[in-house]
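>> Question from a student workshop board

For tomorrow's exercise we were told to take the sequence and the ligand below, predict the bound structure, and bring the output to class. My setup keeps failing. Could a helper post the expected result so I can at least see what it should look like? The ligand is S-adenosylmethionine.
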Amino acid sequence: MKDYLIFLAQSHPGFRKAELESLANLHGIKADFSNHNEEHPFLMVSLQSDEEAYKLIDRAILSKGIYELWGHGNSFEELHESVKSNMAELRKPYLLNTFKFENLTFQGGKKSREEQIKMYEKFVYLDFKGKIRMKTPDQTFTILEQYSLGADLFPLDHPDHCWFGRQINLSARSRGAVEKYDIKKRPYFGTTSFDAELSLFTCNMAQVRPGELIYDPFVGTGSFLVTAAEFGGITIGSDIDFLTLKGKGPKRRLKDNFDYYEDPLLFTDVLCMDFTNNAFRKDLTFGSIVCDPPYGVREGVKVCGTTDSKIGRETVMIDGELAFLRRDYIQPKKTYSLDLLLDDLLQFAAERLDTGSRLCFWMPVANDVDIPTMIPQHEQLELIYELVQDFHKWSRRLLVYVKRDDAYRGKTIRSEHREGINNFRERYFNKFSKASRAQQ
Ligand SMILES: C[S@@+](CC[C@H](N)C(=O)[O-])C[C@H]1O[C@@H](n2cnc3c(N)ncnc32)[C@H](O)[C@@H]1O
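>> Workshop helper replied:
Here is what the output should look like for this input. Compare the format with yours to find the bug.
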């Protein structure tokens, strides 16, 4: 085993470890991330090989890069001692390679070019024989530093800790994936489009694999489909709202986003369909299901049907054809509860996911009253993560389930056990106050 250093992103620190664990599991890598600290963006891990390190970070969104660790210490003196004691074996394969040095800091001030060069020159004892090349060198050697802030909120003069390592790989994030999927840059987006960074992260949590069929049952403008395609998933979606699927005119439809990202072959299609009356054939299975079900705030939870005993039941003929059999027939719709919809989603996932595959979805929860949140559960699905993104009075949770084999019997928590507890829509529109009083 060798030591590596991961430089983590400074966003969503509470989700970073879960992403690394999911990526390690996806690639069959055994690694211990228990030293992860949400306060700091540096994490040391032991891995078998550079190849494992490369794969672990390659598609990460909440990590920036991974480095073969040559030394570290609480001061530059300690760092140099550490590098000198390790370097004999480590430097051999790279002696003749072209190389460059770089410096990355957490909370550190910006160094002038002269200061940087002075810092790099202190590593002269490595005695590399290759040429320095700033563009596309064979090896990049990185000095990483972590600083604390003083009472004036400026960084202290000396780092708390520093590391020296050889860059193994930079992540999808560092290669620009989050900017690439920025909602506003897409030909087609809308008010429900899901944040690019978290869509990509969700697809990593779902372990989207190249060539597998990935389904979003509440596809909207397709944020999860384009990000699943980034990781090679073959995507398919459905939504009850025909107008969302139709898009905003030529070159501003969901399919145009795939052309824009040059992934048209990874887009199967989208179907206008009520998820609760699912039309996929019974033996169609999916590699993962990823979604953001309707919260009932911007878009209501709707299913096909009517609560009015008359509407939709009268026989209407158009041009000699029964109206409901025509292609242009628009079904009446009735409102439905998010709780029931989530039961349906879990049941569907239990039937349609391959064993070991994942269902990932975001569930809104009101935080205004101090009662435990009841997370939906199904006996065939193991809930492995519940990651919370807090917005003060409400939060949304990413729930990650794995489909287990027939021998598995997990917990069941259906809507009747949760009734009236989450009730997100009502509490949102009451500004989270009326429901709180009712609970007291
Ligand atoms: C939160 S939005 C999803 C947004 C999507 N992730 C995006 O990036 O645009 C939920 C979607 O669920 C759809 N929806 C609501 N009820 C549905 C149902 N019964 N079956 C299928 N889709 C439904 C809504 O039309 C809406 O587009």
